[in-house]
Every structure is written in structure tokens, then in C-alpha cells.
Structure to design on (128 residues):
């Protein structure tokens, strides 16, 4: 079953904003209503205003880089977003250090990504 454009506004917004994971495409195709409701629930912290965008990005980095998750694409996306809103590399590094409580692998994953993204960020800033 293919989903019509704009019939699932949260999913479409996530796709447009770069927050969609292509691994979810089959789930969307199999059960678009449930997927839309789940994504709406998952997006609530971003939309509620209770947590600042900075805190949300730092929490997402911690979760994605943690040894229990180890999701490099999400870690990269949230580091990029954090840098873009003014989070410092030092703040990101402290979050990665905190995430090591569940395993040193968080730094093995996150620190090289932070270094790569800092270089890319510097290049974007120099080109602007």
C-alpha cells in the first residue's frame, strides 16, 4: 500500500526536515496510520516547548551514541543540529562522556563523528 502525499503530515514533515529514517519506509507502507501516530508521539518533546532545542539535541546525541543504541546516522544528524543551534563541541563532548556510563563505545562512535562534523561545520562557516 503506497501512502498518498500529505495524508500523514507528521511523517511528511519529518521527511522534509531530514528527521526521517529510511528504515521506517516499510513500516509506513505496512501501517501508515500507526506510524503517523507513533511519530506524532515521538515528536511531542520537540513541539511541547518544555525542553529547549539545545537540551533535546543533547539528549538525542546521548541516546543515539549510547552503547545500547549505537545509531551513527542519528548521532551525526543530532550533532549537526546541535552545532547549528550553537551548542559547543565541549558541551557535546560532555554528553558523550556521560553516555559512556553505559559503555565506552559511545565515545568510540561519537567523538570521531564530532571531529568530522566540527570540520564540516568550520568549512560551511568559512564558505558562508
Amino acid at each position: 500500500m503506497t501512502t498518498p502525499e500529505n495524508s500523514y503530515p507528521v511523517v511528511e514533515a519529518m521527511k522534509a526536515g531530514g528527521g526521517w529514517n529510511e528504515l521506517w519506509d516499510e513500516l509506513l507502507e505496512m501501517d501508515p496510520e500507526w506510524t503517523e501516530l507513533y511519530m506524532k508521539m515521538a515528536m511531542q518533546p520537540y513541539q511541547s516547548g518544555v525542553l529547549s532545542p539545545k537540551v533535546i539535541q543533547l539528549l538525542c546525541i546521548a541516546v543515539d551514541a549510547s552503547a545500547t543504541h549505537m545509531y551513527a546516522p542519528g548521532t551525526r544528524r543530532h550533532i549537526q543540529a546541535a552545532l547549528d543551534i550553537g551548542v559547543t563541541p565541549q558541551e557535546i563532548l560532555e554528553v558523550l562522556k556521560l553516555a559512556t556510563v553505559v559503555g565506552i563505545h559511545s565515545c568510540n562512535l561519537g567523538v570521531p563523528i564530532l571531529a568530522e562534523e566540527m570540520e564540516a561545520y568550520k568549512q560551511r562557516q568559512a564558505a558562508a
